[in-house]
Amino acid sequence: MAGIPVVALEIFFIGLLGLAMIAIGGVSFVVLRNLFRGQR
After folding, report:
1. Does this model's pTM top 0.70?
2. Can the keyword Transmembrane be found in this entry's annotation (predicted)?
3. How far is CA 22 from CA 9, 17, 25, 26, 27, in A?
């Protein structure tokens, strides 16, 4: 753990968080679009 710079760890976690946000947003977008399409 001492050999890894803290900045690299921060960038890794921020990238992971961004990917998770994109995945959650995409899934919720598809689900909401299917719901609205089913109502019509």
Report:
1. no
2. yes
3. 20, 9, 5, 6, 9
* CA count, 13 A, side-chain hemisphere, 26: 6
Residue 30, both tokens? 């598809």
Q: Nearest-CA neighbor of 30 among 16, 22, 19, 40?
A: 22
Q: Which two tokens stand for residue 20?
A: 């998770």
The token duo for 24 is 């959650």
Residues shown for the chain: 40
Q: Which two tokens stand for residue 40?
A: 């019509």
CA distances from 40 to 8, 21, 31 (A): 49, 29, 15
